[in-house]
Specification:
- By secondary structure, the protein is α+β, with helices and mostly antiparallel strands.
- The chain is about 25% helix and about 35% strand.
- The model has no long low-confidence stretch (mean pLDDT about 90).
Length: about 180
């Protein structure tokens, strides 16, 4: 049975002591959550390279590429706010879309209809097989949070994990201040 607490447009926060280097202090936007499995993109792991450096003959845009996760790292994905302009985009939550026609995307960027502040590119994705995410949630590996459009385009990646934890309130505000290296206490 599908877990209704988690779903498209939610955010998964890695618990503070997760040691998996792929997900340590990660904020993952869930784009798909079905019986067969779940898929999302890590929002706070920039690869420090621009999409123009990665894809030849791509229009000029000052947009960095992020590590979306360890699955299919030979693929490029994008999340944006231009679903009304880009055919085949899937709405993740109101005003936030995933994918769409890649050739049309290049035209829209060339014509400055899509700019760096309303699109984010990812290499690979984070994926969970049937019931895997449910099991990880039961173990306490992830904290579910509400997504805010500002998390995608306005909050810096270094601060994102702690900001989202703080926004949850209560005990999560305390967890937001736990140092990354426990020896710092």
């Amino acid at each position: 049975m599908i877990d209704r607490k988690i779903g498209r447009g939610k955010v998964l926060l890695a618990e503070p002591f997760m040691m998996d280097s792929n997900f340590k202090r990660s904020v993952v936007l869930v784009c798909e959550h079905e019986e067969e499995g779940s898929l999302g993109f890590i929002l706070n792991k920039s690869l420090k390279m621009k999409i123009n450096d990665l894809v030849s003959e791509f229009p000029d845009i000052e947009s960095f590429v992020y590590y979306g996760g360890p699955v299919q790292t030979d693929t490029i994905h994008y999340i944006h706010t231009a679903g009304h302009l880009l055919e085949d985009s899937e709405e993740i939550m109101p005003g936030v879309f995933w994918g769409g026609d890649f050739e049309k995307l290049k035209i829209l960027i060339s014509n400055k209809l899509i700019k760096a502040d309303n699109i984010r590119f990812f290499i690979g994705y984070s994926g969970w097989s049937e019931s895997q995410l449910k099991g990880e949630l039961k173990l306490g590996s992830w904290v579910i949070a509400e997504m805010d459009l500002n998390y995608l385009f306005k909050v810096g990646e270094r601060d994102l994990w702690s900001k989202v934890m703080k926004h949850k309130g209560d005990v999560f505000s305390v967890l937001a201040n736990v140092p990354e290296e426990i020896t710092w206490n």
